[in-house]
């Protein structure tokens, strides 16, 4: 009211033509008082305060999102932060990370190069990009070997907790762990991929040229053709049909991408491995439910027999590799148990597998080199290089029978197995040597802690 009264009095004086210096000074002071009146300024403060709070909330949400999206090594570290305890299978993350990067490089190579770059190395023929075709080097652009590593590592990872509890005699907890794993397996595999495919469907609806129209000339995969509807409802229907067909665990679960039984996801054909992972995981869980209470050696013997049976008669590559990863995990715990209780001065500490075998030439030779650090490292490194060489076997479409380094060994494999023999066993050996190296780097006390706590 004070400001309004001052404004009226000034206006009345101007109308009356009164020219009074004192009144002008009084009026100006009244205006300044009105401008500085707290009641007037409080009208603007709530709106500014709400805007400031909204900005602070947005920044807080962005900060939380960045903490989830950014890698841990890019986040700020304070003195109060305690080092996080690594989970038992953290040593596998490096192997999976390298395989993931190489899969990305493989798919990028299909967009920029022809299929010829994936042929085997044959120096007697004129070949371009011959260096990248060399054994082991060719793994940098090869996709199927990385898929084999994923399958073997997945079999190891999904069975790790249940087998750890089994070796500790905690069978009830092992059963609960398996029930939880079975319940969560389907959404963990298919839900993230379904969201990505939904985004792809929406983007192609908004921009039909999202994947390009021509691509580079003379490349393996110049562009991708995806379903496109005229409206949102139609595109959502395309996405729904694609998800239903591509997530069928039976027909899609035991065959590879090129098999006619497999229904490809038209929005992203690279998701063909997910049904195979799901079906193979269910078989691993079923095997563990049936055999978790058996003696460790009996369970491993049954697993090995099942692997040979499935490989010889049915040739289900994903199932064979998943079960092999599970067997490596079981064997890993068994070796850790024996190393934790063995005398470091005895032969069983060095060659635990031969613990119940009479001393022979082999055991005496091992005993001779048991204190040789370089000997153990040389054997492990040699096995790892052999595993990489086996893993990099060219697929049948890229001429392994004409590739130097693989002519003889590929001729030994029956055509029945196709590409499902040499490279998968290379992936199994890669995980086995890496697992043994992880065990060898620990002391007996650390092995005892691992056997007790996992």
From TrEMBL:
Q: Which InterPro entries did the record assign?
A: Acyl_transf_3_dom, Acyltransferase_3
The answer to keyword Metal-binding applying to this record is: no
Q: Mind listing the UniProt keywords for this protein, alphabetically? A: Membrane, Transmembrane, Transmembrane helix
GO molecular function list: acyltransferase activity, transferring groups other than amino-acyl groups
Pfam families for this protein: Acyl_transf_3
Domain (Acyltransferase) spans 90-414
What residue intervals traverse the membrane? 135-158, 189-206, 271-291, 298-314, 373-391
Which PANTHER family does this chain map to? ACETYLTRANSFERASE, PUTATIVE (AFU_ORTHOLOGUE AFUA_4G08520)-RELATED
Q: What is this protein called?
A: Acyltransferase 3 domain-containing protein
Q: What is the lineage of its organism?
A: Eukaryota, Fungi, Dikarya, Ascomycota, Pezizomycotina
């Amino acid at each position: 009211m004070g400001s309004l009264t001052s404004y009226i009095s000034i206006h009345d004086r101007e109308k009356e033509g009164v020219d009074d210096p004192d009144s002008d000074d009084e009026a100006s002071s009244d205006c300044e008082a009105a401008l500085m009146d707290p009641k007037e300024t409080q009208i603007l403060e709530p709106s500014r305060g709400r805007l400031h709070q909204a900005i602070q909330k947005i920044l807080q949400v962005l900060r939380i999102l960045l903490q989830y999206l950014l890698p841990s090594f890019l986040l700020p570290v304070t003195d109060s932060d305690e080092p996080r305890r690594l989970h038992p299978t953290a040593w596998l993350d490096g192997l999976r990370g390298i395989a993931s990067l190489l899969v990305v490089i493989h798919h990028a190579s299909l967009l920029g190069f022809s299929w010829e770059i994936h042929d085997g190395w044959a120096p007697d023929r004129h070949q371009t990009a011959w260096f990248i075709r060399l054994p082991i080097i060719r793994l940098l652009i090869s996709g199927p070997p990385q898929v084999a590593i994923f399958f073997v590592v997945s079999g190891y990872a999904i069975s790790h907790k249940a087998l750890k509890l089994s070796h500790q005699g905690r069978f009830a907890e092992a059963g609960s762990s398996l029930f939880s794993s079975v319940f969560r397996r389907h959404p963990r595999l298919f839900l993230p991929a379904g969201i990505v495919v939904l985004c792809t469907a929406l983007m192609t609806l908004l921009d039909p040229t999202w994947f390009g129209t021509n691509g580079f000339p003379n490349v393996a995969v110049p562009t991708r053709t995806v379903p496109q509807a005229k409206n949102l409802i139609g595109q959502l229907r395309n996405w729904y049909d694609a998800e239903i067909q591509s997530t069928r665990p039976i027909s899609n679960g035991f065959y590879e991408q090129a098999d006619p039984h497999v229904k490809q996801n038209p929005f992203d054909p690279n998701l063909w491995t997910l049904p195979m992972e799901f079906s193979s995981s269910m078989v691993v869980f079923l095997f563990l439910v049936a055999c978790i209470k058996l003696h460790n050696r009996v369970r491993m013997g049954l697993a090995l027999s099942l692997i040979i049976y499935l490989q010889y008669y049915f040739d289900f590559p994903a199932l064979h590799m998943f079960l092999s990863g599970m067997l490596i995990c079981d064997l890993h715990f068994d070796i850790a148990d024996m190393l934790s209780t063995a005398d470091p001065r005895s032969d069983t500490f060095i060659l635990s597998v031969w613990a119940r075998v009479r001393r022979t030439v082999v055991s005496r030779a091992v005993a001779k080199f048991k204190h040789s650090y370089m000997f153990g490292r040389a054997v492990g490194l040699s096995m790892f290089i052999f595993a990489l060489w086996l893993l990099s076997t060219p697929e049948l479409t890229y001429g392994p029978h004409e590739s130097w380094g693989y002519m003889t060994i590929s001729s030994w494999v029956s055509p029945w197995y196709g590409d499902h023999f040499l490279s998968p066993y290379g992936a199994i050996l890669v995980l086995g040597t890496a697992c043994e190296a992880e065990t060898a780097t620990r002391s007996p006390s650390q092995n005892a802690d691992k056997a007790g706590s996992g």
